[in-house]
Specification:
This protein is an alpha/beta fold and 741 residues long.
């Protein structure tokens, strides 16, 4: 079967009706069907654990019929059939509103697969009119097809839907897979032999119809390796292509700006900062563009490392651009750079150092004379360091000699936006590129998502940086704890400090919470746990606007409370941050616009409202906004999640450690790979079929090694056409997350 045949509509082989049903599980082509892999396997002797079934879930279960009850319906003609199936401890009811031929085979003791949507009726879980197929019991003369289908001990259970059951998928797969005699294999034969891997077709046969557990495990390992290998081949080709591009070496310049900055620095670099700085300096000295990812824990000093790289480029006669995703963050970066440089940022101005450069801010709110002046300084090369947002990507922005692009929080930029600065029209040489993220990255994610970048890690904090203490405020179980939260905020303000209060959404002006929601923010002495609104429904997410009004009128009466959210104009955002920094409004109620980059040394307390609605990485970033000065910081996670719930357990894990790398692994464990690599980036379902970023770190390392060796010998894949075709297919469907770097 050729790649073109794999791309043919599946209806040509399985029929129009089945093809229409398969669309509901995102199967459209022959290749889609072959790669629609079982999500699990039922063992003939082991029934499905029914305890975990949830209402609304599309379930396929292997269970034994315990009882059958048929009786006339009261309101209409016909019979009602209720069948109870069991796994030996839990029970599930099957309800049929008609008695047809196949249902007459449902007798106590029979074992079958039952598929449908789980519903809750009178506190019982049930499937209404489920599809089912019975396993042969040796006495059923009509079970020849079933016996052939379930000949093995392992029964594949496929992702299914309300329009197509698991066994109908299995039948369609068998229709396509059975006659196949060949299949393009992207893993070269020599490599398969060296890694002791089965061929692609044999692996697919074993995964769809496993003869035994050992053969299944070997087949799954082969397909996981293939997935990793094809991806790593493309990443290796991108690394090689980037290394072939010309760039101006930016080292050993005649300027003395970096030396002057280092001499004036009141603190030493950490060993990690020195190590990463040396690696960046070596990259900048090469005649090919640097493509390096810098990540580390909150407060590890990424901005300082990036600034030293920018100063080195300025010393070598070039310019550096720092690209930030939001106006708030861009303004913060510009202020931080100016504060770190001092007189070194005021070239040509009164009070400027003899050796100095100019720092320019360019955002959407910089208009009029300020904008024209900024554009002129950028074009003339007077501005050595340019900090900005997407405004830097505008067609009217022209650099004299752009030598380095630093992209902060790179995942917030689109592919074209990130490439715009590096591919300026008329620019003979590519600038060096340093991308930063404030979220620590597990090694497997770095190899898989950022595999075409050199990766640097800042794995230690500067001396004297105190860890932020994190506490849960469980409103659902102990509402009186919240009173102490606002008392603590007031105490910090009275001590001259600042407090962030972060909410999950903005809300609407004049929004009035229901009494149960209001109970969360200033419970009285007779308060009862607030776990939901009317009829036990979950309380709505708290809005910035409503909460700010409630705090001003209630527990923080007399304290100036500011606002910061995405609907505000750039001028209002800047004013809100300035008022917060100065202490005119010592409490700032905000959305996650303050999640990264915001540096206010006086901020000592972070209150996260509805903390269960935030991800692990977000919570870690938010608490990193406090404790950045001399005073220790505290983070209070306010949650309505009941004790013992998964959300409460997740928050407890965040509170238990301040190790961002450990939390990154926890985040990877709790989130689907598709959230990391799939639909969130590609607009499709999960980009990973079998590969697990947590489990397969060794396999990914092997694939990376093999891919690099192959691309070194055959960069154009001219000698490996089947691999080239698979890379092209993969690149077309997953380009977005590959291009994240």
């Amino acid at each position: 079967m050729s790649p073109d045949e794999l791309a043919e509509p599946v209806g040509m082989l399985v029929g129009t009706a089945t093809a229409t049903a398969l669309r509901s599980v995102d199967v459209h082509t022959v290749g889609d069907l072959l790669w629609h892999l079982p999500r699990r396997y039922a063992r003939r002797g082991e029934l499905t654990d029914l305890a975990g079934l949830q209402p609304g879930e599309q379930a396929t279960v292997l269970a034994r019929v315990e009882s059958v009850d048929v009786r006339p319906m009261r309101q209409r003609r016909g019979s009602l059939m209720q069948v109870v199936v069991t796994d030996g401890s839990q029970r599930l009811q099957l309800t049929f509103f008609s008695l047809r031929g196949p249902q007459r085979r449902l007798a106590p003791g029979r074992v079958g697969l039952f598929a449908g949507t789980v519903e809750q009726y009178q506190r019982r879980r049930q499937l209404v009119h489920p599809e089912f197929v019975l396993l042969p019991d040796g006495s059923d003369a009509d079970a020849v097809d079933d016996a052939l289908r379930f000949a093995g001990d392992l029964i594949p259970v496929y992702p299914a839907s309300s329009t197509i059951s698991s066994w109908r998928v299995a039948k369609a797969v068998a229709t396509v897979l059975g006659p196949l005699r060949d299949l393009p294999d992207p893993v070269p034969e020599q490599l398969r032999a060296s890694r002791d891997l089965p061929g692609r077709l044999d692996a697919l046969r074993a995964v769809h119809d496993p003869p035994d557990p050992a053969t299944l495990a070997a087949a799954q390992a082969r397909l996981r390796y293939e997935e990793a290998f094809v991806l790593q081949v493309e990443l290796a080709r991108r690394r090689r292509a980037a290394e072939a591009l010309p760039a101006t070496p930016r080292a050993g310049g005649t300027g003395r700006l970096l030396a002057a900055f280092d001499a004036a620095r009141p603190f030493d670099l950490t060993e990690a900062q020195q190590r990463v700085g040396d690696a960046i300096a070596a990259d900048l000295a090469r005649p090919h563009p640097m493509h390096r990812l810098l990540h580390g824990d909150v407060g590890s000093g990424k901005t300082l490392v990036a600034l030293r790289a920018m100063l080195a480029v300025v010393d070598a006669g070039g310019q550096a651009a720092l690209l930030a995703p939001t106006e708030v963050l861009a303004v913060q970066h510009e202020r931080s750079v100016r504060a770190l440089l001092g007189p070194l940022a005021d070239a040509g101005l009164l009070g400027g150092a003899e050796v100095a450069t100019r720092v320019v801010l360019l955002t959407g709110s910089v208009t009029g004379t300020r904008r024209r002046q900024a554009l002129a300084e950028i074009a003339a090369g007077t501005a050595g360091i340019v900090v900005g947002t997407h405004a830097l990507l505008g067609e009217h922005v022209r650099f004299l000699d752009l030598g380095l692009v630093v992209v902060d929080e790179q995942h917030r930029f689109g592919v074209e936006q990130r490439a715009a600065l590096a591919e300026r029209e008329g620019q003979e040489h590519r600038p060096h590129v340093l991308v930063m993220t404030a979220t620590p990255i597990p090694r497997t994610v770095a190899m898989t998502v950022f595999g075409d970048l050199d990766v640097s890690v800042l794995d230690e904090l500067p001396p004297g940086r105190s860890p932020v203490r994190t506490h849960l405020v469980p409103v659902a179980d102990k509402p009186h704890y919240l009173r102490r939260t606002w008392v603590r905020v007031r105490e910090e303000v009275e001590a001259g400090h600042r407090a962030f209060v972060v909410c999950p959404r903005i809300g609407d002006a004049g929004e009035e919470p229901d009494p149960a929601a209001e109970l969360r923010w200033w419970p009285g002495d007779d308060a009862t746990p607030a776990q939901g609104g009317a009829h036990g429904a979950a309380l709505p997410a708290t809005g910035v606007l409503a909460l700010a009004d409630q705090l001003r009128a209630g527990p923080l009466d007399g304290v100036a409370v500011g606002l910061l959210h995405g609907r505000m104009s750039a001028e209002d955002k800047d004013e809100a941050m300035a008022a917060f920094v100065s202490g005119r409004t010592p409490v700032l109620v905000a959305t996650t616009v303050v999640e990264v980059g915001v540096d206010v040394p006086e901020a000592t307390v972070m209150v996260v409202v509805d903390a269960e609605r935030f991800g692990v990485a977000q919570l870690h970033q938010l608490r990193g906004r406090v404790g950045r000065g001399r005073a220790p910081g505290v983070c209070l996670l306010v949650t309505t999640a009941p004790a013992g719930s998964p959300a409460a357990a997740r928050l407890a894990q965040v509170a238990a450690t301040d190790d961002g790398f450990a939390l990154a692994e926890l985040d990877l464990e709790q989130r689907r790979e598709g959230d990391l690599l799939g639909a969130a980036q590609t607009g499709r379902r999960s980009s990973l079929r079998l590969l697990s970023l947590r489990r397969d770190v060794g396999l990914i390392s092997q694939a990376r090694e093999d891919a690099s060796a192959l691309v070194e010998v055959d960069p154009g894949l001219d000698d490996h056409p089947e691999l080239a075709a698979e890379v092209a297919r993969m690149t077309g469907s997953r380009a977005d997350y590959l291009e994240r770097a």
